[in-house]
Design brief:
312 residues; Spore Coat Polysaccharide Biosynthesis Protein SpsA, Chain A; nine-stranded mixed β-sheet
């Protein structure tokens, strides 16, 4: 069975060679690697071409910069594998990354297989197979056994029929992965860490505040609407995920000393609508305490958070 590996590339020259070295040396070699150079202005495109010149399994697509969603969509449309996976261009994977995920998937007759990442806070003691669709969605929405990123997973190619990453959205994974899980009858979750995620300055909490960060909240509301219609037993957990995203946006706004009146009103509405479900969840005491204060007066809670941050 052939596996298509899709890697969007944008100004990744610092880590790209390390990433591609980890992919071309996979123990499972029936792969085709699709590199989408998303209008890079550094040497990333040349690095991609250099790897392609010495490995016929690699195809490079040079495109205008349209963002990671469009790059992934292009990779999917150009893929010819039975299975698809994604890797970010500044990350790296274990030598048996593909073999491990493929064995998990095929041995358990699954539609999606999942590995752990090296820096995962919660360690899975043993492999686990979810054997019905309800259990699959529960592991995503409620227990957190399946995270919200598309990398670190292997998918049957047909799951993407009619499913696209949203163009221009910042939290593209959140807008997409629940749709794939909803199509899965079985998901195999492996306990071994095979994906090395590199934290960088563009990660959510390291990146400076932008109004685009509110798209995380929009993604969570979209998920909630889908869950309410198709998995009503999980609605409380979906509501709690909304508040988690609102908390994180409030934290970033506070750190920047920025207060958007229209969004403050919307965030206050979300707190008052879903706060009780968040308090039932497994978030930290400090996160719950902030959400309680924000439900009463969001602006005051954010200002207090800003003062505490300034004192650190």
């Amino acid at each position: 069975m052939k596996v298509s590996i899709i890697i969007p590339v944008y100004n990744s020259e610092q880590y790209l060679t390390e990433c591609l070295d980890s992919v071309v040396s996979q123990t499972y070699d029936n792969i085709n690697l699709i590199l989408i150079d998303d209008g890079s202005s550094d040497a990333s495109g040349k690095i991609c071409d250099g790897f392609a010149s010495s490995d016929p399994r690699i195809r490079v697509i040079h495109a205008e910069n349209k963002g990671v969603s469009e790059a992934r969509n292009t990779g999917i449309s150009e893929s010819n594998g039975d299975y698809v996976c994604f890797i970010d261009s500044d990350d790296r994977v274990a030598p048996d990354y593909i073999e491990y995920l493929l064995n998990l998937l095929e041995d358990n007759d699954a539609d999606i297989s999942v590995c752990q990442r090296e820096d995962a806070r919660r360690k899975l003691k043993e492999n686990k197979t979810l054997t019905d669709n309800q259990s699959c969605m529960n592991a995503f929405v409620k227990t957190g056994e399946i995270d919200s990123v598309v990398w670190g997973k292997l998918y049957k190619r047909h799951l993407f029929d009619g499913v696209f990453f949203p163009a221009g959205k910042r939290y593209e994974d959140e807008f997409t992965i629940y749709k794939l899980i909803a199509r899965a009858s079985r998901i195999a979750i492996g306990s071994e860490p095979k994906y090395h995620y590199r934290k960088n300055e563009n990660s959510f909490m390291n990146r400076s505040f932008s109004e685009k960060d509110f798209e995380w909240m929009a993604a969570m509301e979209e998920q909630k609407a889908f869950i309410a219609q198709n998995y009503p037993v999980l609605i409380s957990a979906a509501n709690a995920r909304i508040i988690y995203s609102v908390n994180k946006c409030a934290e970033k706004m506070s750190a920047a000393g920025t207060y958007h009146e229209d969004m403050l009103k919307e965030m206050q509405r979300l707190y008052r609508a879903y706060e009780m479900d968040f308090l039932k969840g497994k978030s930290s005491f400090s996160a719950k305490a902030f959400s309680v204060a924000a439900t009463i007066n969001l602006r005051a809670a954010m200002k207090l958070l800003h003062v505490k941050g300034a004192r650190k």
